[in-house]
Amino acid sequence: MAPSERRGGAAGEAGAAGDASSPPRPRAPLDLRRHLLAGQVIPAHPLALTPRRTLDERHQRALTRYYVAAGAGGMAVGVHTTQFEIRRVGLLRPVLELAAETADAALAAAPRPFVKIAGLVGDTRQAAGEAALAAALGYHAGLLSLGGLGELTDAQLLRHCRAVAETLPIVGFYLQPAVGGRGLDFGFWRELAELPQLVAVKIAPFDRYRTLDVVRAVAAAGRDDVALYTGNDDSIVVDLLTPFPVTVGGRQATRRIVGGLLGQWAVWTRRAVELLDAVRPLGDAVALDAAWLGHAAALTDANGAIFDARHGFAGCIPGIHEVLRRQGLLRGVWTLDPRERLGEGQAAEIERVRQRHPTLTDDDFVAEHRDAWLA
Question: Is 222 left (phi over 0), alpha (psi -120 to 50) or beta?
Answer without folding.
Answer: left
